[in-house]
Amino acid sequence: MNLLLEIPISKIRETLLLMSSLAERNCADALRAFHGRDGSLAASVEEGDSQIDRLEMEIDEEVIAYMATRGPVATDCRFALAASKISSNLERIGDEATTIARRSLLLNQEPPLQLPAELSGMADAALKMLRDSMGAFIENKPDQALEIITRDKAVDLINRQITCELTTRMKESESLINRCLNLMRVVKSIERIADHAANIAEDVYYLYRGRDIRHGRAGQEKDALQQRQSDENPQPAAP
Q1: Are 106 and 43 in contact (CB under 8 A)?
Q2: In 38-77, which positions are buried (b, 16+ CB within 10 angstroms) versus exposed (e)?
Q3: How many CB atoms lie within 10 A of CB 94?
Q4: Rounded to 5°, angle at Cα 156 from 84 and 22
Q5: How many alpha carbons fall within 13 Å on the CB side of residue 141?
Q6: Does residue 87 carry a pLDDT above 80?
Q7: Rounded Cα distance, 213 and 224, in Å
Q8: pLDDT tens profile 33-52
Q9: Helix or strand or coil: residue 232?
């Protein structure tokens, strides 16, 4: 690659990784504030979100300048497009962290509510999807990105289970309605974080494989990958 092309790409990559680090930190802080009923930590999450917003705009400006002045080839065009879409998903993840923090502050105004047993595992799974998606981007691992996308279904399932549980609680006791509704929004934000992490994984796969796997195509691509791996490593015939 031409060095003049590599310099702006490196700058975009560095800004994107900084944005990812801040988004992950905000999510972790929001969840700690939620579980620990820590109002000061929850308030700090909203302050941190403004920096994530600024970085998204900075990446957009860098991508536009790069496309306008460098005349990039196909692979570099994919990088620019993927970087812009990844930054958009990271910004939305930051927004969901802010939502969790705000709902935590509302929940702090009322007596503690017993949390569903599956909630901690759901949050851990969503954050791991985010870390692994960005890891696939950094390490050029599209097959890992493909695997990450499949994890989103498990998070969706837990979201539905918790929502059903909270709905039942509200029917049983009107005094719990407000707290359960706020908790439902926290759970939905965690589910949305996982969705955006899956979107990032799709963008990573597009970047390195040049194939669009949105709208349900990831399953077909995974089946094709497994078939290729099977063809390359055939099982020995039984004696």
Answers
A1: no
A2: beebbebbbebbeebeebbebbeebbeebbeebebeeebe
A3: 30
A4: 40
A5: 11
A6: yes
A7: 12
A8: 999 999 999 999 988 899 99
A9: helix
- C-beta separation of 19 from 12 below 8 A: no
Model pLDDT, residue 1: 43
Domains of the chain: 3-229 (1.20.58.220)
Selection from 131, 128, 141 nearest residue 207 by Cα: 141
Dihedral (C-alpha) 87, 156, 97, 22: value to the nearest 10 degrees?
-40
How many of the other CB atoms lie within 10 Å of CB of 238?
Answer: 4
77-22-106 Cα angle (round to 5)? 125
The residue type found at 177 is I
Q: What's the token pair of residue 34?
A: 């939620």
Q: What is the pTM of this model?
A: 0.87
Nearest to 207 by CA among 88, 89, 59, 75: 75
Q: How far apart are CA 139 and CA 134, in angstroms?
A: 9
Distance CA 114, CA 74 (A): 53
